[in-house]
């Protein structure tokens, strides 16, 4: 999970190619989503009975066999679902290990060459690349079911340019992880955090009330957004509307400067994931802004942890960045019907509940989120509560122009105490120049 975070921040950059995937025997050029036979109601493998719904019409192509790319930590789950699917539809499914953040880059070359998996998995911030390049098919047959059954933020995250592509199965965001031995109850506001720090902090002994990865704008974004800033307008899709230097963002930057003085008097480069983990597991860090990917290390260290939504700022709920992992159908698959059937089957509420039981994933399905097994897990509920107040990381390619300028601005604001408005204005101007030059 930690790896997902690091690569998600760089997903709009160029990835190194992973090893070749399984060959499904298709060497056709990539068709557009609109011209794909699977997107047509006249698919030869579909029933023509007008009384059947789109889902009921869909039947796997004769002789179909599928490949899915997934992370190794999902193998046991995928193979369990694949066995069930084969028993029901007679279609065998093989899993090949490919890390989700690498899949769009790999699909770019392997898809048109007929070497890619039929069903792929990747973080939602990469959907723009995949959809623009015509690499994935719309989730058309199961569109209404997906929208009705999934958390709203999850649906938004797997939709690009008004088209639903993904079958979302798990959501991710960061929240407040705290050591109950050091602070029994999670603070509700950052004012409470600051008050706690006054009696807990001891920088000479590396003892701090709270930390997050200061050099990662993935986390810093929330401080600007909670007070009214935003990345791009129109729900992250309007490259011409950048809200990182508006009045709210400036207020958030000024609050960051206060936190530097009163909460975390260190430089942005003095904390990273491993340093923070060492302090937390060593008992000298009381609270950590982190994601579910950190829980295993903390539990293995014997820490009695709690998880809560992030503290408010001036009464405003903290707005975190979030991501969604979803299944997508390769636009070049030989078996689009079988692929859509399998993507739907492995995304279903029954499958998501099983994935929660096996791997502790945060479900994207609304009914699963309300299941007693999930509701009884305080950690999962806390992350889902924070997710409800999150915004998906924008998927448009122009995000590639954002990271370096805004990270430099946060460094100026935090480390050097420079004028917040001036630093943010400079960053936004650089972002606009990068977008105009096409340097994503």
Give the number of DSSP strands.
15
Percent strand equals: 15-25%
Let me know the CATH homologous superfamily of the largest domain: Periplasmic binding protein-like II
Number of domains: 2
User: CATH topology of the largest domain, anyone?
Assistant: D-Maltodextrin-Binding Protein, domain 2
Low-confidence stretches: 1-53
Tell me roughly what share of residues is in helical segments: 40-55%
Discrete helix count: 20
Mean pLDDT: 88
Largest sheet: 5 strands, mixed
Rg is: 23 Å
CATH class of the largest domain: Alpha Beta
Distance between the termini: 25 Å
Describe the structure.
The protein is of the alpha+beta class. The chain has helices at 2-8, 54-57, 75-89, 103-110, 127-132, 143-149, 152-157, 190-200, 217-226, 233-236, 247-262, 273-281, 295-300, 336-347, 349-359, 366-369, 372-375, 378-388, 403-415, 420-437, and strands spanning 66-70, 93-97, 119-123, 136-137, 159-160, 163-164, 167-173, 175-179, 208-211, 230-232, 238-243, 285-290, 305-308, 321-330, 391-392. It is built from 20 helices and 15 strands. A hairpin with a 2-residue loop joins β5 (159-160) and β6 (163-164). α9 (217-226) crosses α11 (247-262) and α19 (403-415) packs antiparallel against α20 (420-437). It is globular. The two termini are 25 Å apart.
